[in-house]
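Listing S7. Sequence submitted for prediction.
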Amino acid sequence: MELLLEKINSSEQIWLKPLYKHCKFLFKKTHLPSHDAEHHLRVWLHCRGLIIELHKAGIKATHDTIDKAIVACFFHDTGLTLDVGEKHGYLGRKLCENFFNQNKHLKVPDLEEVLDAIEKHDDKSKKIAAVSTHYTMKSILSLVSAADDLDALGYIGVFRYTEIYLKRGIPDREIPKKVTVNLRNRFTNFLNTYSGLHKYSDKQKFRYKETYDFFSDLGSLFYQESTIQDSQLEVFRVLKDCLIQRQLGINETIEETLQKNSKGYALGYFSKLRNELEVTSALLLE
């Protein structure tokens, strides 16, 4: 384990700051807090966690694998700066190609595999279950796609889905159903590949249930035309008002909401969301 952590640290020393800096630059003129540079950092953290769990299971990652994974993580959603729709994987591939064309001093092994993972990471259709092998579990596409899926779980998942689906013009009442279908496919694909990591996958089931239950309940409230404000409806309303209509950042949204609410569902949700997001910045402070 010590040797693996040394490999990860070595890769982060080379790649983390330049990739994070470039990602922030790409999102500078794009208001998309749910998928900005911090999202890409979180996805790398999930990917790093997966690599560590695989190591515990006897599946070793090479230094090249770690280098390729961190690069793919930091470019996988950059195409959203150009198109918030389904083409963003291909556009992210092009942005990554441009980055390496402009930074000849930086070299990543097997760039084509990295580019392929970036382009294909967002296929969230339900895959036919196949026998998971050591190779598929540590392929760059599997690692990045799964890490991206893991960032769609928990309280962060609620915020991510709500913003991106509203930005894509999906009507409010249709969002819960679309989310639950997409979320179910994401998690099924994750389990198809990584269910052998028993303790790790069981932990993710709790995070999956948090997000799934939120949107399932929200869908019921929309269907019933409920006026109950101390519920998922209030969280949805706040996210829509702050992120879409007023274009605030997520931290501003959280702080403003917590100042206005001394109790209730919204207070609980945004307090937990803040706690989840605070974990992310730790890596940059090391």
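Caption to Listing S7: primary sequence and predicted structure tokens for the chain studied. The chain has a mean pLDDT of 92. The first helix runs from residue 2 to 26.
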